[in-house]
Every structure is written in structure tokens, then in C-alpha cells.
């Protein structure tokens, strides 16, 4: 009897790349809201979703993770990773949702947890300014005038640069926000003749619980999406930038809801 | 209409992590055959497979890849990766097959192609001695007396060290060989109550075509599997080492055969 | 006229790996004090230093850096790095100092700044638990009972694991501390016959200014130094562990003092 | 008595980042010759060198290294690295030489050996197409029509892309070639007031022995140097591209010649 929530499944089940949910997360994020061309944004949506507006958000997050009893953060290479998430503003049967066209992480464990949730994860290198609570030219203040930057690079090409200058505390999270994410779970077939008929193709609503949010700093932002010969991310280039944010949050994931089977 | 063989699926379909098969591979490998404790080896087999013997093989491979028209090797970070593959000797309904309990690669594109084929891939760092056809103390000869090494490290822990000293040309590939690999395709559910009932759980027979093999060098070998607090690989520790090999090979993959649905 | 504080020196001087001092640093650290065999510790000291005691300390630090006008933290891959520093308790002409036998960083810019200061830097992979100020199973508390871990790996071999459980605030920094570091600047010759007579071989006292320290948390600790075929670090294996610490600090460097020319 | 050719110097001397010469190297390279603006190229030369012509060359090399008795290639992470080298055509007292304005490697051991030779090394990520001697869409032929690519990325920004299509065997190495390299050894002071007066500042002639060259394939080439906010490499942008090359070579280094002390 092999055990394990994912491959590799083994006699004792301790080797599995991803542990059985619940999955506990805490992260520090830099976020930028911007407007993309609505017709372009709409072209990235899967069946079942309608475009709500051209408003997009990108989140750069420095995460720490633990399974239920794992204390993975004591061997932190098993726990920490950085992520860049793009979200579009969509609706499902009239309800506003967020849809993720692109996401990059820097650890395989996170990539696999993401695929199971329908996040279209790839490996990429995210860097985010940190704030230290000491006076130094080497750190911005987490307060008015504090400047933060973030970059994303994948397969040795820089894809994104962003910068945020904080101004004030706000009560409002950036929008679209990933608490409302609707994803596509997708697992292809390899058997000849079936390359276009995936084994799994589902529109799903993510669920999270035990959500906690730090104070939310807001300010001005800039963002650049660089040309790339393959990656269609640059098609979502901003027509205007709305605002930037800095905040932390925690959440737990162990469930999702199937909205629609998209096969055939 | 979103396009792409895998996530992310996009309007033009050029952003997909994995391109539609066929997938063309060429690799240079160092391999070691060894005997593990048969009762331990048997405990790693999935339903449907029987142990044939305690004979195992590990392959360290330096790969280059291209899709049908992709010439990915001209932007080689998209094409090259290194891999460590362990194989056990099993049988399916009386036919000898190879089963992979553990495999590590160093690129996300390869990890995703692997999951689709049922390889239980994780990210790991593989290093393999190269042979250059010039007289130098910096290279072994690809011939009698040439010494080659390989190592595997994952999540900052070294897992495997191997060394091979070449002696002679042979006509015989190492065994078990991955031309006969039988894998488990596995994609879990996240919806509450379904964590133990995967969406996909299939025993599959890999198929490859257009296989080409270089001359095969054979010799003596040593191999060490290091203790690890999570990874059950060390349970397959050799009771004896049989032989080592150095050779290159090419193959194309665009099909597989479903042997058995393992759900329920 | 080429410009630049280090190679590469170029027409405009913006390409130089290291910018002209001052160098501003801020870091979050996990530290462990331990006792090594005094006769072994003494054997690691350079000419001019005497052993004070067998007391050692290791610091794992997550740094952010900026040059005088650089704001490198806005392109954070230019600014952030992680470091593991070992220190021995020594004295120079009767004054207590700290001497660093081994240190690892993960960015070339830091490696080069280090060589100029006499830190014997190599590239290594350091991971350190982070504390987030939110309730989550994914983070320890920065307070009584909070558990933190750190690891160091170099050339794909794990060298160090440490763990600290916080108990109380203290007024006292760990000892030996790197404010008192005495280093050896060393730059060899390559000309034949001169391989043993370096161009630079100096005992130097580091200087730092604008030092700021956060509250210092103290508690119990464990540490393991793993065997390694080349790296003599494991000879400093603890005979006892004294305490663990968690704190942040900031400092600026733009000077040092030559204590003694060690050539000839 | 501490031992070691470089820091860290230790009781047994086995921990030193770089081993005592001789250093044995073997490498497979892709090279491109091009013409830069001569006045720009001249502005990159150090004191003592005159510009010979605007002809430049870039070499992308996949190296394997060993010290005299080290067999480092059996633990290949200690031996293998990839490098991108730019060379300008200069003369010293009427003799043609090559001068390197920029060079990137991906291992600290190579970076340190380089600094000792006066190579202005930084860490960067180089990728180079490989040729396998098997029929496959995943590899070019090492022969007429074979297409090879190479890329360089540093600090998450792509700096260079090159492509070479082979046409014929030639007897002539690309020019400028690094057998004739003249470098600047440079080690700064950190003591206040001395930031502009380095401890070491020497014009040196590299020496190599036991040089072996494979057959040299030549053909057409393209090369792109990307804009970068700091790195002046893009100022050397080609005005025309001359030719591309593919070949391997071996050499041993254990000496150099001081041409001129550039201090004061």
C-alpha cells in the first residue's frame, strides 16, 4: 500500500512532494493594481468566466509554509518561497471573481500544490524589497515615503519590474484579490489521439480559512512588463497604473469547490 | 478559446509550460546497476506490479530537448536539464517492466512533462563528469580506465554519490532500462473529503520511438545513498553493486498506453 | 581613465562589481554560541592572534545592502543576500577580538566586498526561519517559545543545521560578536615561484559605524556541523552549546585599520 | 601555521577556496567575432595598452577543471562551470594582445581563480547548445548547417544572445584569442582615504601551457547585447558581425608575467 498525497508515493508516505492538506501559509506582499486593455484581458479568460473590467493586480509575495504538524519552517528551504501572481477581474454567473493567467514560484513543492489548486505555476525568480525596523540607508521605512521594488525573471529573461512608494494606511485590500480566485485545474493526456482532450479540465473556486491581514499600506506605483518572444504576459501591459500596496497575510487551504467540468 | 497543451493556457498558446508532443530528447548518461533488499524494493511497487528481482539501476543524464519545430536548444535554458532516475525491476502480468520510485530534474518544463508521463519528478541538482576528447588532467578518457562521477542533491541535502571506472565496450544496456518503464499518473483532488480519492490514478506503459544508442562503455562502480529524514530513497541502499555504464541515447515521446485505472 | 572601486573598471565606472564605500547594511540574524575544543580553535588562528577561549558563535543573517546613493534595494537582487559567519574568541595584544575562520554568502557582490575586508567568503546557501507578525501555523512567534531554524549548504553538501527556541529578552549580544572582528586580507601571486608569497597578507581590524540593534531575544539552541571531505569546519564541532539568539542590526562600513603586515 | 593558496586558510589547508596551481582546464566553446566602434573599444583599455582595432570576440565556454592531484571532476560541482568572456584587440608595446573588459562565471572557485589572474569576473548564468553524436531533432550536428545558441544573464537580466550556424572546418582560431590575454590584477584598499589607491594594480600577461585544440568549425553568426542600466557592456554593441566558431580546447595555468605596476 503506497502512501502520499502526491507522487512520489512510497511505503511510509514521508517522501511525497506535497503533504496532505491543510496547508498553512503566511506571506509578505507588494502589490500593484493597474488597468489593461479590456479586450486583451477578456481574451485570457477560460470558458465560464466573463470579463468584469480591465482592472488587474500583480502580487509579489515572500511566503512561509507549514503542513499541519510539519514545522517545515525549521528546515526553511522546505517552507519558504517567493511568488509573482497576476490576477484579472472576472465574473462567474454574475459574481465577481479573480482569474490568474500567470504565476511564478521558486520551489517545486509550491509548484505542485499550485497545480492541484489550478494555479498555472511555473518556476521563476521573484525579488522583493524588505523593510527592517532600524534606521539605515539599506532599508525603506514601512511608512510614508517608503519605497519598495520587485522583479520577476523566468528562464533567464526579466519579465516584470515594479516599484511602490507608500503614502498612507488603507482599510481596503487591492482588487482583484486572490481570496476570490477561480482557477482551472488541468491535467493532459499523452496517449496518441488524446492530446487535446485532457483527463482533468475543471473550473474551480478556491477556498481559504483562518485569514489574517496586517495593516495595509497604500501609495503610488509603477510597473513594466517586458517583451518576451513566448510569454504572452506582455500583452497585458498597463494602460494606466492605479495604486501600490504593502501588507502581510496568513491563510489556510484544505478545500475547493468544483464550479464546472470543462471537458468536452 | 484558450490554447496550450498545459497551463498556462493563453490566447495564442505560446506561453504553455509544455509544448504539444512529440517531444524529442537526446542525453548523455552515467548509470549504475545495483541490488537492493528485494523485500524493500517490493514495498515500493504500486498495485498491478510484482517484483521481478532486487536489481535496481540509477541513471544520471544530461539532456537536451526540442519540440517538433521548436529548436529550443538555440535558447538552451529552455532545452537543457539534468536528471537522476532510479528504476526497480518489476513485472506486469508476467512481462518484465521497470518502475521508477524516485526521479529528480532541474527545470520546471521537464518536471511538468514528467508528471504527464507519470514520472514522480521533483526538483534536484544533478552533476555528472563530462568527457572531452583532448588530453588533459581535467577530463577522464571515454575508454578503459576513465573515471566518472555523479551526485544528486535536493533541498540542500546530498542524496546520492556514484562513481564509475570504464573497462570495455558492451552490447548490453543496463537493466532495468527505462525503455520499459511503467509509471503511475496521479493527480489529487483538493475538495474536502476527497483528499484520498485522486482525479487521476493510472498505471501506464511509456512508449518511445526513434531510439538511438551510442556505443556503451561498461565498468566497475560504487554508489552511496545518504540518510535523509524524509526521503525514503535510502531504504533502497545497495546490498551489492553490479556495474557502471556510460553512453548516450536519443528518443521521441508522443504516446503512452493505459494499463489499468487504479482508482477505487 | 578607467573608473571603479573594483573590477571590472570601465569608462563610466557604473559596471564595477562593488561600489565605492560607504556600504550600508541591515540584517536579521539567528545566532548560536557554543564551545569548541580550545586546542582545535587555537589551530585556526592566524599569526598575531592568541586564543581567548573555546567559545565560538555562528550567525545566520538575511541582509539588505545599499551604497551611498544607490537604493540597490529597489532592484533587490542587487541588494539582498544571506550569509553564515563563524567566529572564534581571540585576542590581539591583549585586547579581545573575534576571528572568522569560515563564512558563506550567496551573491558575488557580497563575496567581493568581503574579500576586501578580509572575510574568507565562499558561495553557500543559507536558509533562516522568518517570523511574521500574524497568527499562523506557518510562523513561529518572535517571543517565548518561538522556534527558529537555519541551515547552510555549499557545493551541494549540507554543512550546518541549527535550531533556537526563544525564551526572553536580553541586553547582551552573543559573544564573540562581529563588531570586534579581526580579519586577514590575502591576495596571492600567480607568477611561478611566488605561489607562497602573497601580494597582500594583512591582519586588519574592521570598523563599523552607525550601528543600531533591535531588541535581542535569547533562548536554547542546538547545532550540528556535518562531516565533509574537504571543509575543516567540522573540526570546530561543539563540545557544548551555550545559547541561541534572534535579533536585527544595522551598520555602515567605510574604513578598517591595518594591524600588522603578515608578509615575509 | 595556516595553509592554503587562498582564503580560507586553515590548519590542514584542504578548505582553501582555490588550490595551489597548476590548474588544468578543458572546455567546449562557442565564439563570435564582431566589430565594435573603435573609439568605444579604446575607452575600455587600461593604461599601458593601445587599441589595435575594433575587432572583438566573445567566448561562451563549458569548462571542466582539475588541480594537480585533485580529480575534482569526480565531484563535478567542484569542477564544472560555464563562462562568457569578452575580448578586445589591443597592443602592448607594439605586440598584439587581447584585453578582457567583462567576464561572467557561475562558480565561486572559478571567480577566485579569475581574480588572481586579473580576469574581472562576476557571477552570471551562461547557457550553450550542446552537440550529441546521435540523430535527433534535439541536437544540431557538429558540421555544416549545425545551429548553436548561447545566452548570458546576470542579476536576473539577460545581457547577451548569440547564434552560430556552422559551415566548414578552419585552421584559424577566432581573434582576439585568449592565449594572448593581458589582464589587470586589482585589489582595493578599504582604509579611509585610500579608496582610490589599490593595494594591487598590475598589468599582467597570462601564460598557459600544454594547450590542445580540437578541430575548429566556423560559420555565420548573430549576436545581440541588451541594454542594461548599469553594465556598460552594451556600449560595445556590434557594428558588424564577422564569424562564429565552435571548438574545444585544453590548457594548464601556473604562471603569469608582470608587465607593469599601475599604482601611483
Characterize this entry briefly.
Chain A is mainly beta and 264 residues long. Helix content of chain A is 6%, strand content 50%.
Describe, in plain words, how this protein is organized in 3D.
Four copies of one chain form a homotetramer. Chain A is mainly beta. The first copy, chain A, has a single domain (23-261), classed as Acetoacetate decarboxylase-like, CATH 2.40.400.10. Helices cover 6% and strands 50% of the residues of chain A. Chain A contains two helices and 15 strands. In chain A, strands 1, 2, 3, 4, 5, 6, 7, 8, 9, 12, 13 and 14 form a twelve-stranded mixed β-sheet that branches. In chain A, strands 10-11-15 form a three-stranded antiparallel β-sheet, covered by helices on one side. In chain A, helix 2 (108-117) links the parallel strand 5 and strand 6 (121-123). The longest helix of chain A is centred in the middle third of the chain and has 10 residues, at 108-117. The radius of gyration of chain A is 19 Å and the shape is globular. The mean pLDDT of chain A is 97. Chains in contact: A-B, A-C, A-D, B-C, B-D, C-D. The interface between A and B is large, with 59 and 59 residues.
